[in-house]
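CORE FACILITY INTAKE
Project code: CF-77B
Contact: R.S. (postdoc)
Sample description: multi-component assembly, two entities in total
Requested service: structural model of the whole complex
Turnaround: standard
Below are the sequence entries exactly as provided by the requester. Do not edit them.
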Amino acid sequence: MTTVTADPTVPIIHITRDFLATPEQVFRAHTDPELFARWVGPDTTRTRIDHWDARSGGSWRYVSVTDDGVEFAVRGCFHDVRRPDRIVQTFTFEREPDGVALQTTWFEDLGNGRTRLRTQSLVDSFEGRDGMLKTGMRIGLDNGYAKLDRILINDNR
Amino acid sequence: MTTVTADPTVPIIHITRDFLATPEQVFRAHTDPELFARWVGPDTTRTRIDHWDARSGGSWRYVSVTDDGVEFAVRGCFHDVRRPDRIVQTFTFEREPDGVALQTTWFEDLGNGRTRLRTQSLVDSFEGRDGMLKTGMRIGLDNGYAKLDRILINDNR
């Protein structure tokens, strides 16, 4: 189950999700562009990676394409890629170029081939944070992580 | 005069400083590595640029060297470099690698060859923000901007 919570004291969204896979496997699903494109986002979109350099100081951009052909692009830079523990990156929807989130993802080893994925998205205002929560991010997360579950289970067969 | 304030509602430090120069000149002093190294930081340190790619998606790293030879390094990535209006970048002291600030700098045209520089540094906790305020950042800002004043005045002669 994916948990999405709004922090009460700072403009952060916290996301938590457990996977039946090792931190190394879940980390790779966030850094390998072909693998990432297979699971990220809602079931109604496809992902086209435009640019991807998952190293500290690298950058990334991808385009989501809906079933009816609408495209929207997101981009950012990788501040810190620390295998297999943590990724820190920036995130902007290109149609709202002034908005920037600082996103940190932790890959926590629960033992027995299980990993807890924790993500926090930090922005500079509560209004901005609450706006992000209303964009339908929930369906994208639920669909995306379910796709990732299936990929990881096939990996482990 | 440099104004440094702690935001009451979000973990941000706001910094404001006016310059007798155009936005283009002040912007260039933040993106040209040789020029940047001449003014940034307190009078008691020198700056050695290690890496510098001031483009959206680029990254940077520099080392400050004190008069008695102590070195400390800082690094980050450039999320958005929008000449001459805005720079968004990440910032980490390498001796505290888990701490990351998202720093936005605006270059506001006041007319008559004057520019208001506004910077906000956003972190993920008030404790972290208040710790930053205690690191002696004030002397570095005051010294640095005074050096930048002199560089810009010489430019305009």
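Facility notes:
- The interface with chain A takes residues 9-12, 51, 56-59, 61, 75-80, 88, 90, 92, 97, 100, 102, 104, 120, 122-126 of chain B (CB under 8 Å).
- Helices of chain B lie at 23-31, 33-39, 126-133, 137-155.
Invoice: internal transfer
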